[in-house]
Structure formats: structure tokens, C-alpha cells
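Run SKIP interacting protein 16 through structure prediction, thanks.
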Amino acid sequence: MARSPEKEASTNEPTDHLKLRLSASLNACRLLQEHVFDLESRLKKINAQIELSKAEAKLNAKALAKCMEEKEEMLGFCKRLSSLCSDLERECSSYENDLRRHMEALVENRRENEELSTISQQEHQSEEAKLIAEIKAMEKDKERLLTKIIQSEHEITLLSLGNKRLQEKHTNFLLIKQSHQVESTSSQPTKT
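Sure, done. The structure for SKIP interacting protein 16 is below.
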């Protein structure tokens, strides 16, 4: 007995509906699988970027530690030079005081020699020559100390410039580090 077209259409309707649902489900599975593959690929890239950032951070930390160590050494050297400069200034001041006292003594000697004309002219000249020789020696010592002070001040200036360069390197390092952190943050996938 032949089926009526209405009955045949009604029996095909659930099958077609199931086929459509199956096709849609398979398509959704395929899309999900592609999405999973895409996420896995992105995850690998992110992990590689994290490892690279860790390696860079280690290198940067070593470089920063070395910079800080060099800076500390420079500061110590600068303090030692500053202390040496202070010692030299005190020594120079002492020489200046001695020179002033000798000059005063020389003036006093001259005055006394003029008042005491009975003293031998030869003795007077000998004493005066001795004082003048001492004064000249002290003046030479003073010039030598002033030269040392100028050299020390020049070295301190050079050290200050070196310290400034280290500070600039440190600042550049911090800027690069911040830049890497910003890049790492911006390269992370946005949540959907």
C-alpha cells in the first residue's frame, strides 16, 4: 500500500531536523576546535614572551647590580678624594700660617736690626738670608699643595661626571624596563 505524500513529509521532517541539528553541531565543533588551536598558539607565543622577558629581567638585574656596585665604588673613591682634599687644604692653611708668622718675624727682625746698629751687619744678613730661604721654601710648598688641591678638585669633577652618567644609565634602564612591562601587558590577549 503506497504512503500518502502528507505522511511521507511528516516522517522526513524529524529526520531533516535532526540532520540540520547534527550539521550545525558538527560545524560548531569544528569552530570550537579552530578556536582551541588558535588559543593554544597564542598561549605558546605568550609563554615564549614570558620566558624572554624573564631572561631579559635577569640580564637587566645583573646590569643594574653592576651599575649600583660601580656607583658605590665611585662614591667611596669620591669620599676618599674629598677627605684627601680637606687634608691638603688644612696642610696648606698650616703652611700659610707658618709663612705669615715668618713674614711677621722677618719684619720684626728688620725693625730690630735697624734699632740695633751695633749688631754685626754680617750676622744680620745671615739671619735674614736664612729667613728668606725658609720663606721661599714655604712658598714652594704652598704652590705644590695648591697644585695638589687643583688636581684633586679636577678628579672630583670627573668623578661627579661619571656618577651623573651612571645615573643617566640607571634612568634609561628603568625606562626600558617599564617599556618592556608595558609591551608585555599589551601583548596579552583580551578576555572574551
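The longest helix spans residues 5-115.
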